[in-house]
Amino acid sequence: MFSLRVCITWVGLLAGAAIATVPASGASTEETLKAFAAWQGRGQLFETGPSRATFVGSFSGMVFVETEKGPLDAGFMVCPAIIDINLADGTQEAKGRCTITGKDGGRVYADVACKGVHMVGCNGDFKFTGGTDRFEGITGGGPVTIRSGLNEAAVGAGNIVQESAGGIIIWPKLTYKLSDKAPAAQ
User: Fold this and answer.
1) What is the assigned CATH class of domain 2-23+30-177?
2) Quick one: the chain helix, strand, coil %, rounded to 5?
3) By CB count within 10 A, which of 7, 21, 102, 170 is most buried?
4) Dihedral (Cα; 43, 125, 26, 183), 10-degree rounding
5) How far apart are CA 185 and CA 168, in angstroms?
6) Which neighbouring-strand residues pair with 34?
7) Among 39, 33, 45, 84, which residue's Cα sits nearest to residue 62?
8) pLDDT tens digits, 6-42
């Protein structure tokens, strides 16, 4: 038996969407926030070697920014991802790309990458690569931790396992800078 948890653990990397609630003021000062996302994932697990498996899928969910009055719904993220899993020692390495859409329709794009161990989590980096509307020209990023809750899934010769799971992505210190040239929020 192989736990699919290791596959989706990395996904957190993707939730930089938290900045979807930050207003663009036209100033290009660097800001930092703390955010998290609850996500659901779907995908397929393929046997790709004698002690290797590869998960290909996507993760999506609501992103929340922590404020003085509690979590604030900042938008919605969707992240396609690939996770390489070493079945012998439980290590994993993941990469993905995310699109986070704010309440006003502005989008933030980001790359995420992490390494970890099955049932422990996946830690890595989240980097903004661009945006639309008020997020045009956004830069920054920060560390990310991804945790998941998955069912056990059997992996055998020639098997393709389809699975869904859920988890949380945490951005303890997400730093960003908005471009002076991005249009102000309406």
Assistant:
1) mainly beta
2) 10, 65, 25
3) 7
4) -20
5) 28
6) none
7) 39
8) 332 222 223 333 344 444 444 578 999 999 999 998 8
Amino acid at 144: V
Q: Which structure tokens are listed for 130?
A: 């661009």
Parallel, antiparallel or unpaired: strands 107-117 and 91-102: antiparallel
User: 57 near 148, Cβ under 8 Å?
Assistant: no
- The domain spans of the chain are 2-23+30-177
Residue with tokens 């996904």: 11
Instruction: Look up tokens 């929340």; give the residue.
Output: 64
Q: Which two tokens stand for residue 111?
A: 């790359």
143-161 pLDDT, tens per residue?
A: 999 887 654 454 444 566 6
Point out which residues pair with 115 in neighbouring strands.
93, 123
8 Å CB contact between 103 and 184: no
Question: Is the Cβ–Cβ distance between 47 and 55 less than 8 Å?
Answer: no
- CA 13 – CA 169 distance, rounded (Å): 7
Amino acid in position 62: M
